[in-house]
Amino acid sequence: MGTERILIIEDDLEIQELLKHSFAREGWKLIHAISGEEGLAALKSGGADCIILDIMLPGQDGFKVLKKIRELEDYQTLPIIMCTALGEEADIVTGLELGADDYVVKPYSPRILAARIRSGLRRKEIAAIKNSEGIKKPPVLQHGALKLDVDRHSAFLGDVQIDLFATEFAILAHFMSNPDIVFTRQKLITTIRGEDYPVTDRSIDVQILGLRKKLKECGEMIETIRGVGYRFKPE
């Protein structure tokens, strides 16, 4: 890895300073922002390889900032780690549904956070290598009325485009690439995000439920295998 750019969107200056000293040995270039608006401006002007995003920010909260980042075409797969004192299951599920890759609850160990960042950067690097070698999913996946354009990160029901969050899109693309195969919840998320991705059965179930709703009648192709996990059964 080279000098990766880590954008830290955090309004607590003491935490900013703590992370600055804790990450000094990593060789990363740290970019600091104390509000969502400032963070978005920094991302658009200079880019980033990973984002640390607080939720309780002045102005736009972290959830709104996360949603706006995922709407930017160039940053739909950018590793984003939510760091916040909001540790309730509902908050974690919301962050994951909006496209966060990871979720760390305050107070946290800077060493653990650094490990999570390294993991996110590795996944990003592996994906880039696979793309450069031509190892990737077919550009268009289709089963019945359901179609995914992988390169353009677009999903369609017939001629109507549907709005999917990054994790929903990744889950559906994996299902459609591997029809009739049963995946446990853990296997499903490990394949998409990596071994150390923090996940609960509840968060996976919520994301599958949301995905089925958006797919309408095609949602029936995602079958629940009781006591095991899920399977994509094409029409």
SSE layout and pairing:
Blueprint: E1 5-9, H1 13-22, E2 29-33, H2 36-46, E3 50-54, H3 62-70, E4 80-84, H4 89-97, E5 102-105, H5 110-132, E6 140-143, E7 146-149, E8 154-157, E9 160-162, H6 166-177, E10 182-184, H7 185-193, H8 201-215, E11 222-225, E12 229-232
Parallel strand pairs: 1-2, 1-3, 3-4, 4-5
Antiparallel strand pairs: 6-7, 7-8, 8-9, 10-12, 11-12
Q: Report the major sheet.
A: 5 strands, parallel
Q: Strand-and-helix sequence, N→C?
A: EHEHEHEHEHEEEEHEHHEE
Roughly how much helix do the residues carry, as a percent range? 40-55%
Q: In terms of structural class, how would the helical and strand content be classed? A: alpha/beta
Strand ordering within the main sheet = 2-1-3-4-5
Please provide a written account of the structure.
There is one protein chain. The strands form 3 sheets. This protein has a 5-stranded parallel sheet, sandwiched between helices. It has 235 residues and is of the alpha/beta class. The chain has helices spanning 13-22, 36-46, 62-70, 89-97, 110-132, 166-177, 185-193, 201-215, and strands at residues 5-9, 29-33, 50-54, 80-84, 102-105, 140-143, 146-149, 154-157, 160-162, 182-184, 222-225, 229-232.
Outline:
With 235 residues, this protein is α/β, with parallel strands linked by helices. 42% of the residues lie in helices and 21% in strands.
What keyword list fits this structure?
235 residues; 42% helix; 4-stranded antiparallel sheet; 12 strands; 5-stranded parallel sheet; alpha/beta
